[in-house]
Structures
1.
Amino acid sequence: MSRSRGTWTSVVAAVLLTAGMATACSSEADKAVGVCEATPNGTLMAATQSEASGKTKDISTNPELSTGYRSGMKPASTKTFAVATANTVASKAACEVLRDGGTAADALIAAQTVLGLVEPQSSGIGGGAFLMYYDAATKSVEAYDGREVAPAAATENYLRWVSDTDQSAPKPNARASGRSIGVPGVLRMLEMAHREHGKTSWRELFDPAIGLADKGFPIGPRLAAQIAEQAKNLAVDDAAKAYFLNPDGTPKATDTVLTNPAMAKVLGAVATDGAQAFYTGAIAQDIVAAVTAGSGGRTPGLITTTDLANYQAKKRTALCTDYRNHQICGMPNPSSGGSTVAATLGILENFDLAALRPDNLANGGDSALNGGKPKAEAVHLISEAERLAYADRNKYVADTDFIPLPGNSPQTLLNKDYLKQRSGLIDRNRSMGTAQPGDFGPVPLGVGPQPPEHGTSHISVVDQYGNAAAMTTTVESEFGAFHLVDGFVLNNQLTDFSADPLGTDGAPVANRIQPNKRPRSSMAPTLVFDKGPDGTRGALTHVAGSPGGSVIIQFVLKTLISMLDWGLDPQQAVSALSFGAGNTPTTGLGGEHPSINTADNGDHDALVLRLRELGHQVSVAPQSSGLSALQRASDGWTGGADPRREGAVLGDTR
């Protein structure tokens, strides 16, 4: 069904009045009045981290601003299709595509282009993405790689200094210079997925975003808070300053109406001429001009129009592993998300997690709806398993087009016997603090300091045909490199590389920057299936994923374990306390969660105290996930959206 851009604008803009709410939309009877409407399900607090918990922001573990927690959210129930994004406006646009017969691949395009407008701090067409897609007709699982790449002119010291002859650091810093910007990949990837799985015309899928860009949309609380936090950095770029700040330099506030005619023009060109319109011609030239400009004393990047024209999205072999009576399919390299999630689960398979179900689930009320409170023993075991898995990730995982994995296969790190041996390193009475990677013999790689990785956005979709998609999408840090070109934010994805090409032992680091290489990611879009009696893949049961930088892995793991081992519904699993560890002595407990007493740094919280007795260094700083999860039910789908963001699950009601 065709619809005018004006119609899309009025329908989608109306949902802004209920932003931050989650439910399902109505079906046939509501088509005339606009379906996929949100209804109240908790109010998102427009609070900064300090307002929410009194904690200061730690960008290494909490890359985006915390905006509170919607306590007591209930799961959404749908009949044949469902979509969850981190913003209600994007969920609504995608839901209406599904309602009108579109596929999961179609819905992703509508959602992504709208997200680029309403949450440009997190994702957009100037960034990249990873996509896991299930095709119900062929029963195949496919992995799409739309990760950004380094320019052909990049050297191993590209992020460290201006040139081999001028060894001064990029200005004002690596992130805000042109050096952090990788060749964007998300549009090429979406075009590939649409070509293989789309049903609605490519052109029509851009109408919601074009309508919003033309007619305007009010700034939501989360975007307003992010603008305020980054106003100083946004002011350095003339285009970003004009768009996000008032003439007097103050940040634009919640409910300020933004129009973006430049973005509407770009989206219109891509809608008409395909992704090629972005990667060649005037748009590509504008990108190169923005990256290579040295205005304001910034160090230019070295992206060329040839780099853009040559960019290709890639199909990868999905990484599918068994976990108890499930099959978990995740993203392979260059993302470390799929392999680290799988390795952690493989270690935990040797423990009876079902016996460690969270407390406070039986009494009802908000405590149960919020996922209860995990037992200290469960947090301990899961965090220790994560430390072991991160240790291997940190040393061995990078873009396998450049750096082979041990044994030239992800299965070396995921071998059941190896993971059982790793599980034996866990002391149930004492944290290991920092784990050592497994020994796979001499390898020409070093372990360098791990670069900070930052926030993104995530989309979970199932359509009426049984197809499903989990896509995690990013511009890297909030507002990427603070460069705005033609109305969209350019990423700073190259800071996901290790800036120093050599490790502490003097050997080359696996995740060092190289020409045309893709930086390692932690994004973990995930599809879960039943495992048949003969070990084959059964029915699709769950779709999940989250933003959150390197902590994505922990967010996804706690959600999967909550659903698969503890029997929580998707909303409980998503709402549940965020906890876990990278390979450091610090174990995080999300202080935004109502079950944690953050007073005096957690000194009065029983869970915190018990973990400290076990040797954990516990942080109760807020954690800013953006999880979503969909679960198959006997009569349709059940879904949950993260109470820490403005998202919603929408679909056709049962």
2.
Amino acid sequence: MNTRFLITVVSVIFLSSCSTTKTTGNDLASTTPIESQINLTKVKNDKVPVTIDPGRFTIDTVTYYIPKTVPGTYQLDDYGQYIDGFKAYDYNGHEMKVEKPDINSWKIVNAKQLDKISYLVNDTYDIEQTGGIGDETPFSPAGTNIEPNNYVLNLHGFIGYFNSLKNNQYKVDVTAPTNFVKSTALQQTGSIISPDGKSTTTSYVAPRYFDITDNPMMYGKLTVEEFQVGDIKIVLSVYSPNNLHSAASLKDAMYKMMKAQKVFLGDMNTTSRYDIFLYLSEGKKDSPKGYGALEHNKSTMVVFPEDMSDEELADSMIETVAHEFFHIVTPLTVHSEDIQYFDYNKPTFSKQLWMYEGVTEYFANLFQVNQGLISEDEFYKKIMDKIEMSLNMYDDTMSFTKMSEHVDEEPYKSQYANVYQKGALIGMCIDILIREESHGQRGILSLMKELSHKYGANKPFDDDKLIDEITAMTYPSVGEFLKTHVVGTTPINYEVFFQKVGLELVDSKVETNFILNGSDIIVGGNRQYGTIFFTDLVKDNSFWNDLGVQPRDIIKSVNGTKLTMQNADSVMQDIFSWKPGQDIEVVLNRKGEDVIIKAKTVQSYTAGNVLKADPKATEAQIKLREAWLKG
């Protein structure tokens, strides 16, 4: 039974004779928790009802906001576009006048009479076109899902805020079928089962609105596993619609990876619990398409395709979750005022994406070789892949700090993904410089620990002063590098840094896949004629060249699927995921005649540069390399 409803009824009986407004002194909106109700048992037309009770206002006009964007996405998503049927009610239950200044806000006049607001929330997953990458929907891990067996509750899509009350405590009640499994790091304060036993209302508390946006939930037919890594409890929650994967099947890989991360970080620890949410997409028209993850202070939300093998999924989770977990260092512990005082509807962006995303991505690769999860040659290959992608796909002369500060607008917006390529390489170069200057005793991890001690989760740094601070904390060479290659527009000569640690680039054949030569795609398209064809680069791809494929061969079908402009992306993604040993059939059109390719895939190679240990490296270079990789 809803005890709050009973209290409200009793209050109305005693107060109705003298007033129609709340007059007690302990119900002021400024001092009481904001009560939020999400009812998953009352979904109609794929919409979830939400009710917000903010307490009593003493001002005439208030505005309720749903975020335009949230931290970590670096794009404007307008979550207000998914809100329908917004209504405000006074203490007599009468509907009040509501104005709508823009897509993400609702202005309520005569706010002293406001009792509560209600609205319906649409989800984002089933209307995605490209998963929030280049379209108008949020990136899938930042989106929402409403379906009978699963609810992805990124709460910023369901619960909004009043500007003056963002630091108020929130009470969140979620009503769901009793047989649903629920998972969240948000603090649970109690639960009530309905009289018929069919639904359960679980209550949670969030200290402020930031904690609403920072704590996703997942409800439905989930599998959940918990395990301990040092003094951190890890909670892994998995939704696999066809039960192809489970939390149990991923547990060992996640444990091994996160144990290694904990050893790598040493005594740096900012949380006693970390949640991993994994939604596996069926790949249907209404399924999410933006594969990847979004970090939070104590959790990460991940979306991947369900049809991956256990090994492929485990490898992808290691790469992705490792990156997200290292965000506990930056920006979650070390960050600027733009993040500390994030404005959900008028955001400004920090200049330091090279650190937030780049250094984080660098750690996600470095720890693997540091902890023996991969070989040194495998690590070098990852570095070379990033160099090739950075040089071939992005503007290598663009100021990284300028791109970061203006990441929500072109021409910078389309360069964002370079934070995972050149951003990581910037981290590598700084690491090598610090190792060199300190004779191997310090590195970029040491620097990040020092910054975290100086600042921490609740003390932001001044964005404009960070590089000068880092220079003062390290060495003039580090400051010069940052000003020249990060603030400035001068491309980095990576061979200079490889020479410092006794590495060299040699011409060799390198492994590639069936759609790329390194970072160069080997197919093109003609929209006028609706054809997809192999380009001249196919001659340098050993697999296709050995099968006799020629430039300008038109691809008609792949494994029985006719190739069109409409399905080209999904078919190319399928080819990209091929592994050696698969039977394939590709029908080509060569000068008007069909050519049928039936084969078993083998490892493909192309010409390229390989990063290797220089056999002529000096003892000092080898010592510095060992400190860099193993220190």
3.
Amino acid sequence: MVKQVNQETSREQLEEELYLFNTGQLFDSYLTLGCAAEIFEGVAGFRFTVWAPHAKSVSVVADFCNWDTGLAMEKIDETGAWTLFSDAAKEGHCYKYRIEQANGEMKLKIDPYAHEFEVRPKDASIVKSLPQKKWKDHLWMASKKRHTLTKRPINIYEVHLSSWKCHADGSWYSIPELQQELIPYVKEMGYTHIEFMPLMEHPLDASWGYQLTGYYAVSSKFGTIEEFQDFVEAAHQAHIGVIMDWVPGHFNRNDYGMAYFDGTPQFEYNDSNKAQNFRWGTMNFDLGKAQVHSFLISNALFWLEQFHLDGLRVDAVSSMLYLDYDEGPWIPNEDGSNHNREGVHFIQKMNTTIFKRHPDVLMIAEESTAWSKVTCPVDQGGLGFNYKWNMGWMNDTLKFFEMDPLLRKHHFNLITFSFMYAFNEKFILPFSHDEVVHGKKSLMHKMHGDRYNQFAGLRTMEAYKMAHPGKKLDFMGNEFGQFLEWRVHSELEWSSLEDEMNHQYQQFSQRLNELYKKERALWEIDHDPSGIEILDADNAEESILTFIRKGKKPRDFLIVLCNFLPVERQQYKVGVPYEGLYEELLNTEMVEFGGVWTTGQGVLKTSADSQNRQPYSLELILPAMSVVILRPKRVMGVPKS
């Protein structure tokens, strides 16, 4: 979009928009600040606008002018912003801001609102118009409005873009190349969404994209805005949603970036203890500052609107909620509490603003503490997210499966405790990148026993996750049992698929994902106790857990039996609610998945013996280290509604 303005309307409009920016209410601030194409007084060029309230002077230095002195920018009265129109600027030119800081020191800074940057190690901003794409994903976008998120299947494939696959020489796949391979793979595997680790501009691979310099640009390492827009469109046309990780809590401290931009604490807190993020070596955003609200909320909406993203996973929410979350010194509130009230207010404002515009998007909190009401609406005292990663479930589950099966009966609460709080929040159950890196080992490597038992344990764990209430997430490589833990500079261990056991496990993952999407009982009532009925959670001695998952319709139910020991149980009885015939929907020990069972157990007929507080029961063999899921085939007495 190219603005056509004259001097009078340009200044008046800028002042009005900057007033909103300074009061924390300009939620499309990327259309005002940064670099944008403009026709000014009939002349085509680009307008540069930057917020640097305590700078003594600001110039644009660029390919189209002198890099030493540049073109002086004009300060717009009391707005704290500086502006310049140049008809010499062209698409693709590199530029920076030459800022005479409050102490008189000269610094070259990137544009915080730039839409493109040089490929690192170079770091200049690039003159770039925001593309006006004609989208072709109308069916997907309309479908989102018709279907309630909580009552849909959500099974997310988490991806680090440059290490999913690499070329033979180790170079990265471009976004168009990835589009041709990743989207068909995700669709074939049966996932519903792709979640990317951050794709914004960042200087260091080791940060995995979580230490950002350019919030409004796709990283030059990955590609362009247009390419990522096309990727999302292609994913939607394939009926795959796209989510991205987003980092509003802290930012990269490199000198050329936003840190002490005008020589004073500008984006960061005035208090150096609050400004410094000691754990991650970054700077914390001042979440009490109105202009930071405009910058960050605009950024969230930028990715949701300009790229049609289906949601954001908000990183490190805990660091925004607590004054003492970091490792450095801190000062409590007047009442002695440790809550960051400014952070809480910002999060509530952010979610309120986003859901007012887009009630159908996912706003997912990565929050690792017991903070209450994370997914409760703001008007009910909550933070306003609609989903939260269940970190407690993940940690307990992995700890349970890593231990010797002989010890599991003594720690059975690790696998059952989650049912005590499963409906306190709207949860996503993640096996994420954080759990397969830095010496934690891959999921497959965490499993106890020899290679056969490791895969049996992995199948059991994933099937248990799929049957447990809550939406799902798996990190790339988990789906085929990669043995090596994730390495940011190398592609996944795709060669392991030449091994029959890995290939069979990949087939199992695919079958499990498709089963999940097909069976409404596994996702239709995920966030209410009515969606599950526990049959037996007290059989610690045999380490067997049984429960019923339920959909809205009475006939939409599944019987889930989890055997967490490598011991087969003959003539095992489980209670069922209705008389009739039941069939095996899943047996994780089938030979096609890498198990030892060549044939299933056929159709099972109920007996009138009550079991597990149910009027009828079934008798079956419960394979060693397995999950068996049964569904009704022909039953009597089921209510019609």
4.
Amino acid sequence: MEGSKWCAANYVPLTPLSFLERAALVYGGRTAVVCGDKRYSWRETRERCLAGASALAHRGVGRRDVVNDWSLTSCFVFFFLRPTTLCSADQVAVIASNIPAMYELHFSVPMTGGVLCTLNTRHDAAMVSVLLKHSDAKVFLVESQFLAVAHDALRLLADGKENLPLLITISDDDNNHGSVMEYEGLLRNAPRGFDIRWPIDERDPISLNYTSGTTSRPKGVIYSHRSAYLNTLATVLVNDMATMPVYLWTVPMFHCNGWCKVWGTAAQGGTSVCIGSVAPKVIFEQIARHGVTNMGGAPTVLNMIVNAPASERKPLPRRVRISTGGAPPPPQVLAKMEELGFDVVHGYGLTETCGPATLCAWKPEWDALPLAERSRIRTLQGVPNLMLQDMVIKNPVTMETLPSDGRTVGEVMLRGNTVMSGYYKDAAATEETLRGGWLRTGDLGVRHPNGYLQLKDRSKDIIISGGENISSIEVESVLFGHPAVLDAAVVARPDDHWGETPCAFVTLKDGARATADDITEFCRARLPRYMAPRTVVFADLPKTATGKTQKYLLREKARAMGSLSKLGRSKL
């Protein structure tokens, strides 16, 4: 259009770093981070982030040469159909719990032009060594409680003649540990007057997040400044994080950068309440003490809260909005959360979408429905958030968009500006996952006539018994309705006659009793007979650090059991 001009006045690269600058300006004297007896204002937090950036930059961390690299830019080729030139940058890895240093590194590392790589605190030394090697980490910051694992990982790298990153420890004191540098000491001694290295292009990488997987082929998901910025705004808006919220950290900051809420609390000048133990008693105490307005957690955290003994509960000073995702929460748990004073925002997302991508957007007319019906609706994964362009159910082979009838199952596919830039150093996986211009999630679901998504299962978790598809999610939802059941997961057990049959792993509530037959009969009274578990195993369920059940471990156990029936001689 005549007269239009693209220039520095009307284009500034989007970046979450701008949220910290604004927070320090507008909310400078207000509390930004609380951790035990430690409190830092927004002004102090910015100063600490600048000091951290200065210390890292003086140790060589920053952006490197401009590159045209398929491994970094493949998804942009899909979207824009042209090569994309981006900056390469040094990676800074960190293993830490939800502490102030972990929060600060989300700003200080990008301030250098570098890329933050947060590692799962439950990884063993072998996995950590693989990820350090794959990420090309130049610096490795480690909270003191994880130093033993870190040292073992570095020893493995040294044995393999690999380059070792500079190790910096994060501890509660200022003492050095041998030759290891210490975080607080670095902040104190860092040269002042550091100038933030703003991204040259908003598509430059800001963070690297690893998906769960095997040590042989890790997948590092690249977030850009743009995608992180946009999804941060989306999470703030859909979770009603008003000005100056008080956010309780029960979601690990290493997981999708805390579902982007590390940057989100800065965007709204909020207070981050960091806790060392995600336990019901601690959660209720912190909500009461700090007037928490928002929090997050996997369905496991919700289950933990509703099953807390009365002695560990405290009245909520106000209703608390809690976001959840990762697995569909059982309606029974959602109902109890509402009764306790929590407003649950149920969403869905992946590491590949910067975390939350959809939400069950609530409609006022649903408030008049019975509690059970409201809870059922809240189990839906809902609609795209404000920054995701499209969500569809497709046939993964033909790419036909399937009808929104609530019955036709297909693969959930997404596209938009909050989808990852690609997998680090894995062009083949990037191309496959983004093939056809859509992010192929691998999740199966249906779309209802009102446009709301409902997940049915991961494609690998669907149980096919006698030619019938069984959703493990539906069976689990029924299991959670049993009064004795605390936790449950359903996987496929091989069967010579039926191909597969449902196998339920169940954890009972303290003091509760139930037999395998009790559980099976309970399910048969509420499900078609073929869907009811034929095997019930009582055990504690293996969990990830984010509270997700590790179904692959349960599948291995179920496979090891062998067939329940003999070929041609079985009844359901």
